[in-house]
Write a structure and sequence with these properties.
This protein is of the alpha+beta class. The chain is 28% helix and 19% strand. The chain folds into two domains: 199 residues, no CATH class; 72 residues, no CATH class. It is built from nine helices and eleven strands. The two termini are 36 Å apart.
Length: 292
């Protein structure tokens, strides 16, 4: 009951309303979070950033995995390990933590040590993280870059429904949303919408959607997080409950200059003017949970 109570309070604080049984984005995530769905052994398994690669290899193919350089199980192993001069260092049992090492810069051992003493379950109350053992995974910088755009594909009943593009994630994080045909959509969920720029459709979008379809087949709802350079795509992780059911679905336009007709931030086919948060969430929900 403790987890359910904390989840309920967090939902009400974030959305200023009670969760419902409607097919609304955050309400569906809330039901996943407070049911037994998150203790599904497959969901628990793919929550671990080491083990998810075994799932990807078995279901979609090892060519879609980011190579693993090393798994480190203790802070002593971390301190004694000769890290590559350029690499990605992250905990396998947490969410949102990463160190991108460039040019042999010093490794932040204090930060890594803190990872070993943390459980993401205690932060989010997502029980799929509760039994994960603390480890650190070392990977190469994907496509040799430390500022990639990543593509998060929301899937429902094994079908890609919505694509979130995260831009300048470690600099000035913004995002845009598209449908699977790469039509821009009028809302954002977690971060401000990227304005003043258009995002080119990835040349290998069909491959990305096929990978997401394969990996999401065993789940009712899940998000498949990918990286792409236009020719190759790699799986970053599989996210069971994005934002822990507390992410906002924000309006894209307001009555300010951002919504004026002809503004470069107002893509073709999208009307200008005000879109309320309630309307935006309903729109996102209809796109994700609509039965095709």
């Amino acid at each position: 009951m403790g987890d359910h109570l904390i989840a309920f309070v967090a939902f009400v604080r974030a959305h200023r309303r009670f969760p419902s049984r409607k097919l609304l984005f955050n309400d569906v995530l809330y039901r996943i979070k407070t049911s037994k769905e998150l203790i599904n052994p497959v969901r628990v398994f793919v929550s671990d950033k080491e083990f998810v690669k075994l799932f990807v290899k078995a279901v979609a193919g090892d060519q879609y995995n980011v190579p693993t350089i090393k798994i480190l199980h203790t802070i002593e192993e971390v301190k004694n390990y000769p890290f590559p001069s350029d690499c990605c260092i992250k905990p396998t049992h947490l969410s949102g933590e990463v160190i991108l090492r460039r040019n042999n810069n010093p490794v932040d051992f204090e930060k890594i040590n803190s990872w070993f003493n943390r459980s993401y379950y205690h932060t989010s109350r997502e029980v799929n993280y509760k039994s994960l053992k603390p480890k650190v995974i070392v990977e190469p910088l994907i496509f040799g870059s430390d500022n990639l755009s990543d593509y998060k594909i929301f899937c429902y009943k094994g079908k890609p429904k919505l694509i979130q593009v995260d831009i300048d994630r470690y600099i000035d994080h913004t995002e845009k949303f598209y449908d699977p045909d790469w039509n821009e959509l009028p809302f954002a969920i977690h971060f401000p919408r990227a304005t003043g720029r258009q995002i080119e459709k990835p040349k290998n979008l069909n491959t990305m959607l096929a990978v997401a379809t394969s990996l999401s087949g065993q789940f009712d709802f899940v998000r498949i997080d990918l990286y792409s350079n236009g020719e190759e795509c790699l799986v970053g992780e599989i996210t069971n409950c994005p934002g822990g059911a507390t992410g906002f679905v924000e309006n894209l336009y307001s009555n300010s200059k951002q919504g004026k007709s002809g503004d470069e931030t107002n893509p073709p086919g999208l009307a200008s003017g005000f879109v309320s948060q309630e309307s935006a969430e309903l729109m996102a929900s209809n796109i994700i949970f609509r039965e095709d």
